[in-house]
Write a sequence for this structure.
């Protein structure tokens, strides 16, 4: 029998720190906890919401749902000729996993250091930072398929990873519950140093090792992203919009300082933080919610506010960017 908690407070389960309650919640510490929770008739008419670290969600109110608090531990290393294959339970913290692999001599995740959240949540939005995306280090994952009632293995191609996107944000959203993730860390390691800010941070270090790259990333992130333990936030609140070359060129003609990055398919990614900054929102507070002063892409909650108020601010920002640049920016976190 699953151990359901009623009207469970979620404030410490979302990094924005919004006060919201779940009609039911249950700690999932292993796969059998998951099976028994999902087969319990008490949740028959309730939607299921899966929460890892709660670092990429906006709770807009109480959830008339059953929240699965994913806390499955686990760490296992296998290898083939070319790679280390590291499997982590869905509930392991991502940064803890990055540190452990580096400490154990398996580099590869250093550019993804200090990203909040859990290993199980990492594939959902294909976390990425400083020139590396999860999909480049991903082998497979294990998930419970609510359609078939079986545990399944899902490989790299099936995950259909894109920029901050995957199967699990689309068709797979209410179908799969990730219980473990296996990463592929090539033994022939090369640091990825093509991100300008990272190169500058490592100036003077001729051949940095993975720990040095990790430390540089931690330093950069700590300088410009708020620590969720101190200020409620979910990292980048908006995705960087991707536009075709003609629109980007037209914008560049009007705004010579426009920040844009060419994509392999000829399109351009625009820096949403720059667009928002230009509209004058950086560091602007609207009561208990606001825009972070050092990075306009990050929305913050100072306490006592609601997810609904934050979303209203996000809409005002997106409207202003649209009015000014003719580009719609979309939220990155999952809105619940
Ligand atoms: N910029 C401004 N004003 C701002 C913010 C940014 O002018 O207020 C400019 C910067 O000067 C820079 C450009 O915009 O020229 C891009 O900024 P930055 O390098 O900080 O990266 P980002 O595009 O804002 C993305 C990811 C981050 C990731 C960094 C590093 C998205 C939505 N965000 O941010 O991911 O850490 O690159 O790779 O793709 C996250 O997803 O939560 C996250 C933090």
């Amino acid at each position: 029998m699953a151990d359901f908690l009623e009207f469970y407070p979620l404030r410490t389960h979302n990094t924005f720190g919004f006060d919201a309650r779940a009609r039911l919640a249950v700690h999932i510490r292993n796969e059998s906890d998951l099976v028994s929770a999902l087969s319990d008739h008490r949740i028959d008419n309730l939607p299921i919401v899966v929460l890892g670290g709660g670092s990429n969600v906006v709770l807009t109110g109480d959830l008339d749902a059953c929240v699965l608090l994913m806390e499955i531990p686990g760490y296992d290393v296998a290898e083939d000729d070319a790679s280390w294959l590291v499997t982590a339970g869905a509930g392991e913290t991502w940064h803890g996993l990055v540190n452990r692999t580096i400490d154990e001599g398996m580099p590869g995740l250093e550019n993804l250091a200090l990203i909040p959240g859990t290993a199980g949540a990492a594939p959902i939005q294909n976390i990425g930072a400083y020139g590396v995306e999860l999909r480049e280090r991903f082998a497979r994952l294990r998930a419970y398929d609510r359609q078939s009632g079986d545990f399944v293995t899902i490989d790299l191609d099936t995950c259909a990873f894109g920029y901050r996107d995957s199967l699990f944000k689309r068709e797979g959203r209410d179908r799969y519950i990730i219980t473990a993730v296996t990463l592929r860390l090539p033994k022939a390691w090369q640091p990825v140093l093509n991100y300008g800010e990272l190169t500058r941070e490592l100036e003077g270090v001729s051949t940095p090792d993975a720990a040095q790259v990790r430390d540089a990333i931690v330093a950069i992130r700590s300088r410009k992203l708020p620590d969720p333990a101190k200020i409620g936030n979910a990292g980048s609140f908006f995705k960087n919009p991707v536009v075709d070359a003609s629109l980007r060129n037209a914008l560049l003609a009007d705004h010579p300082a426009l920040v844009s990055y060419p994509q392999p398919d000829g399109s351009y990614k625009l820096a949403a933080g720059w667009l928002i900054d230009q509209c004058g929102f950086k560091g602007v507070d609207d009561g208990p919610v606001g825009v972070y002063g050092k990075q306009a892409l990050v929305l913050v909650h100072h306490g006592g506010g609601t997810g609904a108020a934050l979303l209203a601010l996000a809409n005002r920002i997106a409207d202003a960017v649209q009015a000014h640049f003719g580009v719609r920016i979309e939220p990155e976190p999952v809105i619940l």
Notes: The radius of gyration is 20 Å. Residues 129-130, 225, 235-236, 239-240, 259, 271, 273-274, 277, 282, 295-297, 332 surround EPU (CB under 6 Å). The domain at 5-70 is CATH 3.30.43.10 (Uridine Diphospho-n-acetylenolpyruvylglucosamine Reductase; domain 2). The chain has three domains: 5-70, 75-186, 232-335.
